[in-house]
Design a protein that fits this description.
Helix 3 crosses helix 4 and helix 3 packs parallel to helix 5. The longest helix has 13 residues. It is globular, with a radius of gyration of 19 Å. The chain is of the alpha+beta class. Helices cover about 20% and strands about 30% of the residues. Strands 1, 2, 3, 4, 5, 6, 7, 8, 9 and 10 form a 10-stranded mixed β-sheet that branches. It folds into 2 domains: about 100 residues, Alpha-Beta Plaits; about 140 residues, 2-Layer Sandwich (Alpha-Beta Plaits).
């Protein structure tokens, strides 16, 4: 039976995260599975590259599923997009080896977090960024963010989704500004639960002058969840890409 991988984008505002819930709350996974099951006329279960929380968005989520389908990947992509709600889209879809696993085969994951630090809130940005009223100092935030690079115990900033391994390797962590919009891009081999939002919230304290860089480093080195600063809200977080050795998307 054919095995497919798909690159998925979604606006997570109306969903209770990516992962299917026991209750009846809508999730990204359950919504896509419902459409796949309608097309297959039998239950279909998908695997995702990772979970995103309620309200978190993605342009780089990767899913896999097995489906009896005789009409080719392009027709399947069109059929899915024709039946999915407007806040979920299959950007690309291809047939892959049955051995491919979207989570365990991932080598790198990248997220972006958006902060709007203008004095007046912008309603059209509220679903996709965190509005803070005080202008943030991205230079100080970048100096603090550089301390995250490398392999470290990130217990201050999150919990492992399973097991007790808090060590992650961060390859890049950088803030850039465009007018009143700050973008934090971070790439790592994997992330702890709420790790990015916790790092952003603590870096925001540096940017507004509540914490010094030294206090940020001290909190990081404490390896204690209680030392974390503010946890940034979910709507500013976007899963942007996942890197694989054996899966490549067209650009």
């Amino acid at each position: 039976m054919p095995h497919f991988a798909a690159l998925v984008a979604y606006d997570g505002t109306e969903y209770f995260g990516f992962q299917r819930q026991i209750e009846s709350q809508p999730t990204i996974q359950s919504t896509i599975e419902d459409v796949l099951s309608q097309l297959a006329r039998q239950p279909v279960t998908l695997l995702g590259s990772g979970r995103t929380d309620s309200g978190v968005h993605a342009v780089g989520q990767v899913i896999t599923f097995t489906l009896e389908w005789q009409h080719g990947s392009e027709v399947l992509q069109k059929a899915l997009n024709a039946n999915l709600p407007e806040d979920i889209a299959i950007l690309q879809l291809k047939q892959v080896s049955p051995s491919f696993h979207p989570r365990y085969d991932a080598q790198r994951r990248a997220y972006e977090y958006y902060i709007h630090d203008g004095p007046i809130r912008q309603p059209l940005k509220r679903r996709f960024s965190w509005h803070v009223y005080k202008k943030l100092d991205e230079t100080s935030m970048n100096l603090a963010a550089q301390q995250l690079l490398g392999s470290h115990n990130f217990a201050t900033f999150g919990q492992p989704p399973q097991g007790n391994n808090f060590v992650r390797e961060v390859y890049g962590a950088n803030w850039t500004r465009s007018d009143e919009m700050l973008t934090f891009r971070v790439e790592a081999n994997a992330f702890l639960y709420r790790m990015v939002r916790s790092m952003v919230g603590s870096l925001k304290l540096v940017g507004e002058g509540t914490w010094t860089i030294e206090e940020f480093v001290s909190a990081f080195n404490a390896q204690n969840r209680d030392a974390c600063g503010t946890v940034a809200p979910p709507q500013g977080l976007h899963l942007v890409s996942i890197t694989y050795e054996n899966l490549h998307w067209s650009t």
